[in-house]
Amino acid sequence: MASLFGNGGYIYSSGSEGEDEDEGTEGYRKGGYHAARPGDRFAGGRFVAQRKIGWGNFSTVWLAYDTLHSRFVALKIQKSARDYAHAALHEIELLSAVAKGDPTNSKCVLRLLDHFKHAGPNGQHVCLVTEFLGDSLLRLIRYNRNKGIGLSRVKEICRSVMVGLDYLHSELGIIHTDLKPENVLLESTINPAKDPVRSGFTPILDRPVGNQYGGTVISFSEKMLKMRARRAVAKISQRRVSLGGVGAELEKERCLDGISLKCKIVDFGNACWADQQHAGEIQTRQYRAPEVIIGSGYSYSADIWSFACIAFELATGDLLFAPMNRQGCSEDETARYLVYSSTKLSNTPLQLFGHLKIALTQIYISGPLGFDDGNSWEDASEDC
C-alpha cells in the first residue's frame, strides 16, 4: 500500500494489487467522508468518478475522468469538517505555488490541475484534482519482494527526487516534512494493464445500476473474511519459504526491465513554508531526522535525511532505521539509535549535544536501552 497526496497516513493504490483494508463506514457521517460512487459528477459535471483508488484519515481519492480535456485525473475529496477543510486549503496553497513555478511540469512534483467545493449529504467538501500517477516506491519495493532494486535504478529514482527537492527547497522555500516511499509515486503503473490509458480503459460516464457504491453489495463481514483469507495465505507462503519449500522459488527478485522509474514527490498535506513551520512533531518515525527527534528545530535538511533513508531502502529492501518498542522504554528504536550514534560522532555540533542531554533526560528512564555494544543510557549521557 502506498500514498497519494493525502494527509494522515494515506493508503493509495493505482490498482495493481488488492487492498487489505478500506476506510470502513464510520467516517461516512456529517463532517466526514463524501459517499461518492462510480459515475458521480463533480464541478458542474466536468469530472466523473471512475473508481476509488485510495483513502486516508482526511479524505478519499478517486480515479476520475476529465470530460473537458478527455483525460484521467486523480480526484481527492476531503472530509467536510472545518479542520479538514482548512488543511485542504493549505495544501491547495502549496500545490498552487508548485504549479505556478513549474509551467512545463518538469520539476518532479505532483501537479495540481483544479480545485473546487462539492456539497453532499455530509457537508461541503474541498476537492483537489491532480494528474493521475502510478505506483509508489513502497509498492515497487514490495513488488521486488524487498530484495533491493539495484544501484543503477536507485540512482535513476534518486535523480527525480533530488530534482523535486531542489525545486521545493531552493525555488519555493517549502519543506515537505513527510518524505517516505509512500509519498513518491512513479509516473506510471508497474503493471500496464492497471493504467487506465495504456490499458485502453473506457471511462464511465453514467452511473452504473447497482448499490450506492456502483456495484454488487458486499457486506462488512464478507470483506473481513476475505481479508483474513489473504493474510492466512500470506502466512502459509512465508512458512514455505522459511522451510525452503515451493514458495522459496517465488521469493526471487522480479525482473524490473521495462518499468519506467520516472517519479514525483506527492502528499503536501503536512508540508510547510520554511518560515511558517509546524509547531508539532513532523515526519514518519522511520524517516525522522535526528534534529526532529531531539526537538532542536528543523529545516530543509530534515527532508534530505528522509531522502537518504529512502535511497537505502530502495537499494537494500530494508529500513535503515526500524523502530520497535522494548520493555521499559517508551521511545522507539530509531530515537535510541540516533541518540547513541550522535554521541559517537566527532563532528557533531556542541549545541546538538546540549539538546541530546535534555532529550535523554526527558525521554528515557534509567537502565539499559539495548545498545548492541552493551552501553546504556548512563554511558551515552556521559559523552554528551
Automatic annotation (TrEMBL):
A Pfam family this chain is assigned to: Pkinase
Binding annotation for ATP: K76
This protein's record includes keyword Transferase: yes
PROSITE patterns found in the cross-reference section: PROTEIN_KINASE_ATP (PS00107), PROTEIN_KINASE_DOM (PS50011), PROTEIN_KINASE_ST (PS00108)
UniProt KW keywords: ATP-binding, Kinase, Nucleotide-binding, Serine/threonine-protein kinase, Transferase
UniProt EC number: 2.7.11.1
Residue span, Protein kinase domain: 47-384
Record-given protein name: non-specific serine/threonine protein kinase
Organism: Zea mays (Maize)
